[in-house]
Amino acid sequence: MASFQALKQQRARRGAGAASAGQARAAPAPAATPAPADAAPQPACASEEAPVAAQELVAEPDAPEAASTQAFESAATMAQLPACGSRAESTSYRLRGELEVRRTEASGRSIWWAPTSVKSATAGTTLLAVSPHVAVLSSAHLDSRCALCFKTADEAIEALPHTASGSSSPRLQRCSGCRTLHYCSAACQRADWPLHRQECAALVAYAASAASSAKGQTQRVASEPGTSVRALARLLWAGQKKGADWMEPVHNMQSNRGKMDSQQLEPLGTIAARLAFFMGVTLRPDAEPDEERSSAARARLAALGLASSAQLLDFVCQYATNSFTAASSDLSPLGVAVAPEAALLNHSCVPNACVVFPFGPGAREGSLRVVAIREIKPGEEILTSYVDLSDCYAKRRQTLAERYLFACSCAMCKHARRRAPPKAGRAAWLDPREAQWCSRACGGWIASPLTGDETAAPVSASCSKCGAPRAQPDTSAQARQSGEQALERAERFLDTNEPEAAWQTLQRSIRVLSAVMPPSGYPLLALMRCAQTALIELAGSSDASEEKLDEATRLGLAICAGMQAAGGAVFCAAHPARAVAMATLGKLLIADAQGDGSQAQHSCLASPPRLPQAGMERALAGRAMLVQAHEELLGAFGRDTQGGAVGATVRSALQSLDAELSLLAAR
Ligand SMILES: C[S@@+](CC[C@H](N)C(=O)[O-])C[C@H]1O[C@@H](n2cnc3c(N)ncnc32)[C@H](O)[C@@H]1O
């Protein structure tokens, strides 16, 4: 049966699903959001998670410029600078094909499926395919992935034609200049050189400065300026080469600077200061009347297409609102991408589209894709999620307010705020993220009390099945909070390649929360996804790999049940995070089809699901899951890409499995 080595590469990370500006923004993280993370941007959207950029703002080691007497303005000074006027154009216009850009008072510009279109876009339709203006590997991956195509050495070898693969060594080559970036081939290095040339020199200067700042300091000083600064610098250097027309959509991206308070601006000011330092701009208004230095700095900024330090800060604010988490084909966050056209997408917690990188975020043309995941009718707005859709209402609201500075008024959020009583003869719809088990163990759900939203109506809940009231006192809020903290710690462990520590961190919270809430509950679903990732990584290296794979499979069953809860109202069929979770489960089932057949001895789940019997029963269950996953992958990553790279791995797994099954049948 299939090996689990391939699975190990497929980290089913949280945040997948937000690929947004900010989702894949950085998650949306997801699939990709202008960070989306669901890995995201989402504007850092595209996937459901918080953008790499945002996380980086808080937790970076000291930078050399902080100690330097040649410092740019301090972050606090930067934050006081007056906001520049928005350069965004105001009219509606045809973006391309069937897509229109329109502006509304409430949410600015956004993309619509043109009312003149003769037909709807169905799930799996690629709405937009663009090459990001820049895509930059995050600092955590600089040593392990190619800076241009984002592949690991093994992935690069696998991608070679079979005849060529024998001759290559599975190692990345380090740039001998900066000693920071790595490449999988001379071709990738050559292709990256026009942009890396300036970056290479800047990295060398930065590392030297870091080394001298580190002398005598106890704190760690980073030897490179961080993902956001590298991305912003590349954008400015590319702009110098490609010209004003290429940069115009970047400068037209929305800046929320005018809405930010000084606390929100300070981390962005730090990035602006570090960016200036990295690019060799030294500007010290406090050193006036040092006119010479000041005007030299102005000239350097002008050469980069920026009129002033205030505009530099605006540029960073635009990036924070509009960058996407650049995710792998299976939604693992790898870096950030800036794609101004896709960053025009607005947010909804009930998205009808997702930002994904079906073949990874590397140099490939059209690598960032906006794909419809539900039917979109002519004249309908195209909306992605900037947040992780498994987050509860309060958490989504907090992320959107802090990072994107707006309050969502989608149908899901309205429902959460209103807590509407059921219409006569109909049961109230209960958000599966906010549900708890009935304390009478009848199998019914009770709404959790909403936390963190003072505008929401108070909740008086009773069981959906037996009508019993919620137990008093309700202890779930505390368990949820510990779960959130465990998740944060575990994700950091995974980022630093410590899956065992991540797994140890997660088990208790999963046990406690799975006793009180269904698998769709917040933050249980995210905890289980993180734990599954840790276990898959551990299974590849540990002696007890069979046990780990069994537990990862049990978690997979719970994750898929959680994602399909409430008829897919949260994760609809063809949502990338759901499709990838199904593919992972299918592969786990067939990888472990020869397992020892033991049922849960030490599961972290309070009521572990029964695993199909090892052997034929498990293989057939895996096959059924892979078939379903494949259908959803076509919808999630685009029918034109045949479900992207994950679709291809599922087809190949099915082929091998069918060959094995027919051999068995012939015996
Ligand atoms: C990535 S930009 C999206 C494009 C943006 N509307 C524009 O005009 O360029 C993200 C910003 O758009 C606005 N936005 C996005 N979705 C929204 C929504 N559902 N309601 C209100 N504002 C929204 C917020 O100001 C947010 O910070």
Automatic annotation (TrEMBL):
GO molecular function: zinc ion binding
MYND-type domain mapped to chain residues: 146-200
Top-rank taxon, per record: Eukaryota
Keyword set, alphabetical order: Metal-binding, Zinc, Zinc-finger
InterPro entries listed in its UniProt record: H3K4_H4K5_MeTrfase, SET_dom, SET_dom_sf, Znf_MYND
Domain SET, residue spans: 214-387
Ranges of compositional bias, category Low complexity: 15-46
SMART domains hit by this protein: SET
Keyword Zinc: yes
GO cellular component: nucleus
Residue segments, region Disordered: 1-53
PANTHER family assigned: EG:BACR7C10.4 PROTEIN, HISTONE-LYSINE N-METHYLTRANSFERASE SMYD
Protein name: SET domain-containing protein
Gene source species: Tilletiopsis washingtonensis
